[in-house]
Amino acid sequence: YLFYSDLLPSKDDKDLTQYFLLQVVDILLNYIKKTFDAKSKILDFHHPHQLLEGLDGFNLNLSDHPESLEQILVDCTDTLKYGVKTGHPRYFNQLSSGLDMIGLAGEWLTATANTNMFTYEIAPVFTSMEAILLKKMYEIIGWGEAEADGIFSPGGSISNLYGILVARYKLYPEIKTKGMAALPCIVLFVSEQGHYSVKKAAAVLGIGVHHVIEVKCDERGKMIPDELEKNVLQAKTKGQAPFCVIATAGSTVFGAFDPLHAIADVCEKHKLWMHVDAAWGGGLLLSRKYSYKLSGIERANSVTWNPHKLMGVPLQCSAILIREKGLLEACNQMQAGYLFQPDKLYNVDFDTGDKSIQCGRHVDIFKLWLMWKAKGTCGFEEQINRYMELAKYFYKVLKEKDNFQLVFDAEPEFTNVCFWYLPPRLKYITKGLEREQELHKIAPKIKARMTEEGTAMISYQPCGDKVNFFRMIFSNPATRQTDVDYLIDEMERIGKDL
């Protein structure tokens, strides 16, 4: 049986630690090989009750006594076996996908170091790396290092929460000591295509979901600036106090980019904090060809940017960037004396824990730093440009097929391509309730069949007045045109069969 004390070099030269870790590396390498094989299954699908009941020697139940080393290795293998290969070339399901080898190595080293990001004292190299990378991101956005601040957070939802938290503190610093009772009825604005994390943040911060005002979008999903200003004026008329606008740079469903300059004009006119949720679209700033889509982001007061999306960094890796030095710390600091002593032997500006709403903070920076070293900015740019070209290719292929219909009859703005599959029987029903009801059922059925067979994964959803449609996402470096062609053929095969 395996005891933790056994996983150490023993006196009789039987180094179980080395044996165990080499076996694990072997398991990982085999998994990676299968992941990149387009002919392999994306997953071996089982329903929740099957996993909970146990499968072929793989049991999720915990026992009071230690398992054997052999069983632990089997468990490692089976955990990967029954999971989803998000690095598979035909995995198009979410915005975060792909398997980067340099990033993977960075994650291994991070786990081995197993330290915390709250002080330079215990993470000298990692906190220094974070400062370097944040500076790089400020420069790319168009801010100066001396005027900006930031921190890496567990994800885009938390980064958006930070943006709203700091925006409220900037206008109403008394919130920190007196709470919401000291404030007027504050409201914030986000497009109707904005991420749901904005409402979640409002609920968490005590602002209230009903005080998040959704602004109308145009037909492509972009916030309409005139509608924003109308909503701001209406809120003031009602006695509410507008304080923040959340613009979106790369919406989750349509991949839309709000007109940032026009929104910034409204924010400056009414003295509102402007936060840009560029969790998905922020990576485009690295592309000289496509960065114009985020023109105006330099006027934002805060920005969310997730390198774990378009840039392909392994989860999790998200940054909240604030265009005012010292504000993040003033908002969040509690000056815990057992961590943040001012009389340490080094520059305590590198003790970042008092900027964070967390205490323990995972090291998310090393894998990004290592990937940037390996790829350079040019490598990221080339990767992102290729995703954009794949989206255009997919759009053009679908446009020529009479059994597919695009949600937007225009070239995609980002790597999101939204479409319906039309079975032969619906070709002659061009409109009406029957057509809508049938279309709504088709996407879930096709996805279910692909998932059960493990051939591909792609998401679907309804949106506004549009019934269920497929949303193709390109953010996986393993995906090629042949994988795009395969997905189309697979949908046609399953569609005809249904």
- SSE-based structural type: alpha/beta
Number of strands: 12
* CATH topology description of the largest domain: Aspartate Aminotransferase, domain 2
Helix content percent band: 40-55%
The topology string of helices and strands comes to HHHEHHEHHEHEHEHEEEHHEEHEEH
The rounded Rg comes to: 25 Å
Gross CATH architecture of the largest domain:
3-Layer(aba) Sandwich
Question: How would you describe the shape?
Answer: globular
Number of domains: 3
GO molecular function: glutamate decarboxylase activity; pyridoxal phosphate binding
Subunit structure: Homodimer.
InterPro entries: PyrdxlP-dep_de-COase, PyrdxlP-dep_Trfase, PyrdxlP-dep_Trfase_major, Pyridoxal-P_BS
Family: Belongs to the group II decarboxylase family.
Question: How is this structure best described in words?
Answer:
By secondary structure, the chain is α/β, with parallel strands linked by helices. The chain has three domains: 1-39 and 64-74, no CATH class; 109-372, 3-Layer(aba) Sandwich (Aspartate Aminotransferase, domain 2), CATH 3.40.640; 375-442 and 475-497, Alpha-Beta Complex (Aspartate Aminotransferase, domain 1). Helix content is 40%, strand content 12%. It contains 14 helices and twelve strands. It has helices spanning 16-35, 48-53, 69-81, 101-113, 124-141, 156-171, 175-178, 197-204, 225-237, 260-270, 327-332, 365-399, 433-453, 481-497, and strands at residues 91-92, 149-153, 186-191, 212-215, 241-248, 273-278, 302-305, 318-322, 404-406, 417-421, 457-463, 466-472. Strands 2-8-7-6-5-3-4 form a seven-stranded mixed beta sheet, sandwiched between helices. It has a five-stranded mixed beta sheet with strand order 1-11-12-10-9. Helix 6 (156-171) crosses helix 8. It is globular. The N and C termini lie far apart (51 Å).
